[in-house]
């Protein structure tokens, strides 16, 4: 069983789409869910969804670890044609997962109590990101 989720972003940030995936899986059996973001400047994360400070702190950390291309510390970059947020977005996507595997039991993802599935948008501009989903029943 395959599908694709489209996530509209409003620029850099973490966008939770756990409920969308849960609805899609509802009524299915045991198996393994695989998700993969189909872009080179975004990532996927399983992260805490109870306190939004977690997302803010993650954003702050990655902004410090990989600043915009117009920051003097990034003067070594050569891929600059698509703007100062583009190459840093590729670097972040190289550092973070672009795919996730999640066990499913009786059609329910076996996530922890405070875990959610997030698309981590690394670009400044809004995008519609596509996440491929594959469920393999066991």
Summarize the structure in short.
This protein has 138 residues and is of the alpha+beta class. It is built from 3 helices and 8 strands.
Descriptors:
five-stranded antiparallel β-sheet, three-stranded antiparallel β-sheet, 8 strands, elongated
Measure the end-to-end span: 12 Å
**Helix count, per DSSP?**
3
Average per-residue pLDDT, rounded, comes to 97
Uncertain ranges: none
Shape descriptor reads: elongated
What is the total tally of β strands?
A: 8
The biggest beta sheet is recorded as:
5 strands, antiparallel
Describe the structure.
The protein has 138 residues and is of the alpha+beta class. The protein is 23% helix and 37% strand. It has three helices and eight strands, in the order E-E-H-E-E-H-H-E-E-E-E. It has helices at 18-25, 52-65, 86-95; strands at residues 2-8, 13-16, 31-37, 42-48, 99-105, 108-109, 115-121, 128-137. The chain has a five-stranded antiparallel β-sheet with strand order 1-8-3-5-6, with helices on one face. A three-stranded antiparallel β-sheet has the order 2-7-4. A hairpin with a 2-residue loop joins strand 5 (99-105) and strand 6. The chain is elongated, with a radius of gyration of 16 Å. The relative contact order is 0.39. The mean pLDDT is 97.
């Amino acid at each position: 069983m395959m599908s694709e989720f489209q996530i509209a972003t409003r620029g850099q940030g973490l966008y939770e789409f756990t409920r969308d995936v849960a609805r899609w899986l509802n009524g299915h059996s045991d198996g393994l869910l695989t998700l993969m973001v189909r872009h080179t400047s975004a990532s996927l994360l399983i992260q805490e969804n109870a306190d939004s400070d977690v997302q803010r702190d993650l954003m702050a950390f990655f902004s410090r670890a990989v600043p915009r291309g117009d920051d003097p510390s990034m003067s070594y970059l050569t891929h600059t044609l698509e703007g100062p947020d583009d190459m840093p977005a590729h670097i972040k996507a190289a550092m973070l997962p672009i795919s996730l595997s999640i066990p499913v039991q009786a059609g329910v993802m076996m996530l922890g109590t405070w875990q959610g599935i997030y698309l981590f948008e690394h670009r400044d501009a809004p995008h519609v990101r596509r996440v491929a989903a594959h469920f393999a029943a066991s």
